[in-house]
């Protein structure tokens, strides 16, 4: 579904990605793990068109999307849930959700997807008239994911959904990510919580200072001595 080939991405003179290649098959949950500053967020931004790579290609469903605008990329079916959620604090929960569908014209479809999101996250239904800024961190993360689903993505890019959340809330969110995937959405999950990410992912890539250093089935990486000591704090 997605194929990234040898991308190099820069912020001015600073090179953040040094030849990243990865592929994601339809229906998979793939996780990208790595330390602070390894380039995980930059990889997502390179896919979504926010910081396009200087070299290399991003291809989605067989189409080269490397130089397309973010809007075009969203309309093709890639939606990113940014780190830190970025919800609109002074809009209601419902208004925040509907912002996710701003490129769509199919009112009935939008309505149906809104209901689906309330089914996944009943707390968002209860709080639909409340301002986004008054939600707890976990609820804001749910809202950010719900908003992304309103764009009807084929591929969902999740940046650190567990950040700053209590363990039980993280478990709940990861269960829902599994459910979203089971409903047919392919997922690329960036996480510092490697333990949780490797438990729900099918496959994983390890990113170190702008390069992929390891890849494989998630369950193999859970048993890999290097991953265990560097990312899981075990052995
Ligand atoms: P984290 O988990 O801390 O978010 P990350 O793996 O997502 O880390 P990136 O945010 O992709 O890492 O950053 C990769 C590198 O690019 C880092 O060295 C970072 O300092 C640098 N970088 C990121 N954003 C910018 C920016 N806007 N301007 C300059 N350098 C940046």
UniProtKB/TrEMBL annotation:
SUPFAM superfamilies assigned to the protein according to its UniProt record, in alphabetical order: P-loop containing nucleoside triphosphate hydrolases
UniProt entry keywords in alphabetical sequence: Amino-acid transport, ATP-binding, Hydrolase, Nucleotide-binding, Transport
Gene Ontology biological process: L-amino acid transport
UniProt GO MF annotations: ATP binding; ATP hydrolysis activity; branched-chain amino acid transmembrane transporter activity
Enzyme Commission number: 3.6.3.28
Uppermost EC category: hydrolase
Domain ABC transporter: residue ranges: 2-234
SMART domains cross-referenced by the UniProt entry: AAA
Family membership noted in the UniProt record: Belongs to the ABC transporter superfamily.
Protein name: Phosphonate-transporting ATPase
């Amino acid at each position: 579904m997605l194929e990234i080939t040898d991308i190099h991405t820069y912020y001015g003179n600073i090179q953040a990605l040094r030849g990243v290649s990865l592929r994601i098959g339809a229906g998979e949950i793939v996780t990208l793990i790595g330390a602070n500053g390894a380039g995980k967020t930059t990889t997502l931004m390179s896919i979504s068109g926010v910081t396009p790579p200087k070299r290399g290609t991003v291809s989605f469903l067989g189409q080269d999307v490397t130089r397309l605008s973010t809007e075009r990329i969203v309309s093709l079916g890639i939606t990113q849930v940014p780190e830190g959620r970025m919800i609109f604090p002074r809009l209601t929960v419902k208004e925040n959700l509907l912002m996710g569908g701003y490129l769509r014209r199919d009112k009935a479809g939008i309505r149906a997807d809104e209901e689906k999101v309330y089914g996944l996250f009943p707390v968002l239904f209860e709080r639909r008239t409340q301002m986004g800024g008054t939600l707890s961190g976990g609820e804001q993360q749910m809202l950010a994911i719900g908003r992304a689903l309103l764009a009807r993505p084929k591929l969902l890019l999740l940046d650190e959904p567990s950040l700053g959340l209590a363990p039980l809330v993280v478990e709940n969110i990861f269960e829902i990510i599994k459910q979203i995937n089971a409903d047919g959405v392919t997922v690329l999950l960036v996480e510092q919580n490697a333990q949780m990410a490797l438990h729900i992912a099918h496959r994983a890539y390890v990113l170190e200072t702008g390069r992929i250093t390891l890849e494989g089935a998630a369950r193999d990486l859970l048993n890999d001595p290097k991953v265990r000591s560097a990312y899981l704090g075990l052995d």
